[in-house]
Amino acid sequence: MPLLNKNIFGNAGKIVFLFLFGLLSLTATAQPRLSDEARVSLLTSAPYDEEVFTVYGHAALRVYDPALGIDYIFNYGIFDFSKPNFVYRFAKGETDYQLGAARFADYVVEYQMRGSDITEQVLNLTTEEKERIWEALLVNYRPENRVYRYNFFFDNCATRPAAIIEKQVNGTIDYQYPYAPHTFRELINHCSRNHPWLTFGCDLALGSPTDRLATPHEMMFLPSYLKEAFSRAVVTRPDGSIRALVGETNLIEAVEPDEPEKDIWDILTPNLCAWLFLGIFLALTGIEWHRRAYFPPADILLFLLAGAGGIVITFLGFISEHPCTWPNWSILWLHPLHLVAVILFCVKKLKKAAYYYHFINFATLTLMLLAWTFIPQHLNNAFIPLVATLWLRSGWGVYRKKWKFG
């Protein structure tokens, strides 16, 4: 489902075959009407922790009609990374996803082999509703219709199937929402809880809008919540009669996956690396204080990295189309002006300007650290030692100017 999906990045040739070649015989014209034996199902695939691209799970629709020999999966999680400027467009939030299709057996094998269980919720629909959903999917699958602008929170592989079903049923779907409210950040951070670097990156890139409570319906952007919502949902017909949306639930169990191998980043977590980073600069500052000396390359490297991080945050906040990236309170400690500071550190004639920069930065970060718990945005715990490192070096810059050395 999520921002990245192993369906696309792993086994690329195989996936292109499964999803784009799998329906060569399927067209949106002259299709026979579904028989009374037809079934339409929502498929949700369990998250797969071994890859960061699969931790959010996945959702798709199945149309099965044994009388006509139809058994297809419709999957809104496909994109073509061979397109020109793909990396830039992805960073800018202009990734175009598309509706792909495959035979059910091929789809199931792919997820079973990776170790993801698939839950099939057979929908309790009338023959007319099944036909409408089938026709809507075929129309959506036409080349001129299948591409759409992906949005991680609001338009993805889970929201699209829900929207089609809601539109095509005869009545209103009333969700009972059997889950507690959460913010968007809480939802995605729970999914990435076994991948601290992914959590760190998301906390850095996503701003305060991510910390608002998602509505129960918005929470269905995650396949696991979509499945839960469907499990309790009812359809209220225009005549007032009510029926359950899901008529039958089946579990397609996966092959037991191999135990994932540990790598160095399972040990070197963001928290550990950040505190080590602060420790190095504390030691360096202590040596400089003891020797009454100054080592400029350390500050040049530190502020160069902070400035580069600031460019990323500024790009995501003001240029990209990714949702919930601005306002981002991390701009207080990571911003492009740090690159200006690098120039000040390199030119001796600008030492006075460097002092003023350090003074302003020291004051800003002091206020930020004091007000940390009051900032209306969740800030990753690993940010604290990184902010403290910049605070330390700017404080040291002010101290050095006062005592006239370095």
From TrEMBL:
Domain Lnb-like transmembrane, residue spans: 266-399
Name of the protein described by the UniProt record: DUF4105 domain-containing protein
Lnb N-terminal periplasmic domain location: 40-188
Alphabetical list of Pfam families matching this protein: 5TMH_Lnb, Lnb_N
Residues passing through the membrane, by range: 267-287, 299-320, 326-347, 354-375
Record bears the keyword Plastid: no
Top-level taxon: Bacteria
